[in-house]
User: Which sequence fits this backbone?
């Protein structure tokens, strides 16, 4: 038996979330991992609060990522995405089992706690940075904007970009987090309401590139204000799934909109992202954005993460 956060759905469609002792026979085939740490992400909040049809199989253990030790080799591994916590039993538990190819061996310099603190949010941030680099966005070309900057993806993105020498502008709807964002390396704070309304076809050019976790009007405004031949890496939809924009930034300024999907990335790219995280994310900044909670605190945090009240990264010690 092992302890897990279990989501169950009754015949009437009502969903309940509770801690439970689960038999190992419930685990699917695959490499068994003794989970040490997981996290709570936006998707996990949606699943636990039943705010969106994230879960596709019942009963379900949520948790879209985890870090721990393989039971067969003792190797330290991390998992992000692949539908874990949605259609495959997830990481908010003391044990998990997944196909071999889903696991990434941790770089030697990262602990399992640090890997969980980075989590899917930080891994997604690194994929966004790689996208900007692939499209030629270098520090000498001008500032780079990060939207939703006080959240998990945004916090890690700010820290990585600053470490790489970029001038980072951080957009947030929480002005009280300005000191926190400056600590991570942001040089300027952009108010969320500057970007939240309807966008012009083309605005004043402000940023050489951007990492956007918000979508909708915010993404449209960012595109309209991106420099010629700049790139915007889009990875989230906190404001909405729509994109009320025009083709003007693309055909008149040559702006690239690079979509970043962290769920089904090929293994080699995952390994590269984690290698870069180990070298380009300062540990002291990771510590500054991380809060560790026990497994029994997760249910109470679901509404907070959906309401945008959670700063940085929440690590879940599944054995506490």
Assistant:
């Amino acid at each position: 038996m092992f302890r897990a956060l279990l989501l169950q759905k009754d015949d009437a469609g009502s969903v309940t979330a509770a801690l439970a002792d689960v038999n190992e026979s419930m685990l699917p085939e695959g490499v068994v991992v003794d989970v040490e740490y997981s996290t709570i992400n936006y998707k996990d909040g949606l699943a636990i609060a039943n705010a969106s049809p994230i879960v596709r199989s019942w009963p379900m253990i949520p948790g879209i990522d985890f870090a721990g030790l393989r039971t067969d080799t003792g190797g330290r591994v991390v998992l992000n995405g692949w539908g874990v916590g949605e259609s495959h039993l997830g990481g908010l538990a003391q044990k998990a089992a997944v196909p071999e190819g889903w696991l990434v061996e941790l770089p030697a310099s990262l602990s399992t706690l640090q890997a969980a603190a980075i989590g899917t949010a930080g891994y997604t941030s690194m994929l966004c940075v790689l996208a900007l680099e692939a499209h030629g966005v270098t520090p000498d070309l001008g500032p780079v904007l990060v939207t939703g900057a006080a959240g998990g993806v945004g916090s890690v993105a700010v820290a990585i970009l600053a470490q790489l020498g970029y001038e980072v502008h951080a957009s947030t709807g929480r002005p009280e987090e300005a000191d926190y964002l400056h600590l991570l390396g942001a040089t300027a704070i952009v108010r969320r309401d500057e970007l939240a309304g309807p966008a012009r076809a083309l605005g004043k050019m402000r940023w050489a590139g951007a990492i956007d976790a918000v979508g909708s009007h915010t993404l449209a405004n960012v595109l309209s204000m991106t420099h010629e031949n700049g790139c915007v890496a889009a990875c989230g939809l906190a404001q909405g799934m729509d994109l009320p924009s025009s083709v003007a930034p693309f055909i008149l300024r040559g702006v690239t909109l690079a979509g970043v999907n962290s769920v089904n990335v090929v293994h080699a790219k995952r390994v590269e992202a984690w290698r870069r995280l180990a070298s380009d994310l300062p540990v002291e900044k990771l510590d500054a954005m991380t809060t560790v909670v026990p497994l029994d605190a997760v249910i109470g945090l679901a509404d907070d993460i959906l309401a945008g009240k959670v700063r940085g990264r929440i690590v879940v010690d599944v054995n506490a």
